[in-house]
Amino acid sequence: MNKPPIRVRFAPSPTGQLHLGGARTALFNWLYAQHHGGEFFLRIEDTDRERSKEEYTGQIIGSLDWLGLQWSEPLLFQSERTGAYKNAIHKLLDNGSTYRCFLTRDELDRAREKAQAKGGDFRVPKTYRDIPLQEQKRLLNAGQSFTVRLKIPPGKTLFKDHIYGDISVNNEEIDDFIIARSDGTPTYNFTVVVDDYTMGISHVIRGEDHISNTPKQLLIYEALGYPAPEFAHLPMILGPDKKRLSKRHGAAGIQEFRDTGYSADALLNYLVMLGWNPGTEKELFTREEMVAHFDIRKVQKKGAVYDEKKLHWIAGQHLARASEDEILQAIRGEEPNWQRHAKDEYIHHVLKLMKIRGKTLNELKDMTGYFFSDPLKFDPNTAAKRWKDKSVNKLIEKYIQRLENAAKWAAADLDAALRATAEDMAVSAAKLIHPVRLAVSGQSQGPGLFELLELLGKMTCIRRLRKSLTIFPLTND
Could you tell me the residue range of the domain that residue 404 belongs to? Predict the structure, then answer.
């Protein structure tokens, strides 16, 4: 017998931006589908009309698109499915699985206060669970408002979670819960079941905060006569304080990671390691490797801790492994005119030299600025320490003379010329290396100095060194 096709979904509510937790849920769904040759769907749960915003829907869709987590059509919006929910509610009323509850808010409050006074747990009174149809009609004709509640059957609700194992809930612990409010709008647990069945979802992969919803949803599946999907609940992402990741930890929307210059592949690599262990020491994955190795059974139960240093390391590794052309295309994808005045061949050389020193595209753009234009600012601490007085100017002048007469402009020759100058002037090579770097780059550190000089070229280096003689020392002390 053939197994039904794998169909999973990511179902965000557009009441806020897509953050790391939601992006990881989307990624794990996408990986599961890709690994098993299935399909991944996107559903926007926008039934909360007051809090749902089009701008958040746009951010969610744009972020998933940037991450490359492409979904199968159609894109489903819950706000467009009111008719389907009403039909399903009528079905349950007709088959006796639900009932109209005419309890008022005051009656519920009094029952709750009475239970608290006795020190017991509050249970919703089943006053209207089995009233005759004639009595229901009387209340309806009188204009009495009502909610629709599911009749919880006796026994237990069991399900096997792909991560947490066998879970059993005694139905006595579940109240007859509302599936339709007094204004007729369906509740979350109800719409999820109807939508997942309609979409043919085979596996529901979501955060562990939904575990308590699963027994209720299984009871709705049973009442509607729908086959239930399989479930996997992902551990929470925690902040460094081991509490749920939130804005106080600096948890940013996915768009902010893009704007900061992280690559999508690096962020996905980091996200997949938040709670999933491949069973090896391997930590760096391409998108294709993630798909090949992903196993939902290797997701850990323990909450994963967000570690910004680890994110930076992974991002840096991905940047270092990317080709220079990939990096250039990624930068120009965000900033089309970046360094258009320079030849691509030269830019590739710059990126090859500098990509191991950054973690984001923005950092790489910032730290390569002096390859394309003379520095306007100079590190003041380095200037104070390495270019204290006019004696350094004499060293630079001597080095300029050697550079002007250099027959070859290669790193090894530039190194030899500097050391010969230092020897002639009876100083250590460091006395020249540091001020030369400051003069040509404005920085105190960077790539190998002589590789830097070779790449900048003879005219640029000599011009910048001569200009530095008019700038330093910064004080007359």
Answer: 380-468
